[in-house]
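Changelog excerpt

This revision adds worked examples to the README so contributors can see how folded entries look when concatenated. The first example is reproduced verbatim below.
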Amino acid sequence: MAKQALLQRELKRDKLVAKFAKKHAEFKAIANDFKRTDDERALARLELQKLPRNANPTRQRNRCAITGRPRGTFRQFGLARAKIRELAFAGDIPGITKASW
């Protein structure tokens, strides 16, 4: 189980990303728009830098919903590989069976 502080930090990042998503998208679009002047694009980059660091979606980390494990997490299930294995063997994940050939 991951430390509670790490899980809370991730939740805080999720909230910040949601809060600043619109501004971040607007500034990013302006900064990448080559039809705009260089001054406008530079200003948009400066505004992006003024946003909180944790408002950037790339700082989010996928974690297991059960254990909070940051690595080996499958996006499709939102679970770590070890938990997927346990739940699959128990028959709790529909459509997942042990491979045999």
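The second example, added in the same revision:
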Amino acid sequence: MKKNYKKNVKQILSGLFLFGLIGFSNLSAQDWQPIEPPDPSDARQGHSMVTLPDGRVFLFGGEDAQDVLMNDLSELDSYAWNAITPNNSPPPIRKDHQAWARADLMYIYGGYGEAGPLDD
């Protein structure tokens, strides 16, 4: 269902929702349920999220409501976001990038940085 928003007003949400799939949860099939994490992620857009085969969910980068680009990494654990501090420098800040998971690895590619399109 689409809603019309004023184009000059930037509204970025930080809501998290579950959708009940048949046979995969205790939710009723085809029901949405909002989740209110005790420590919600900053509201953002243009970020990426991936799920690893073991079920862990990771969120990377994006842009906040003040147009600040980010390159942080968080893991969703029991409906709480936990920041992950890498052992080395993370990729440059970005939004609208692509991400995917393969085995126990998360890949990040492209998107837009402070100077425009990235091709790393």
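Reviewer comment on example two: Residues 74 and 94 are 15 Å apart (CA to CA). The first strand starts at residue 16 and ends at 19.
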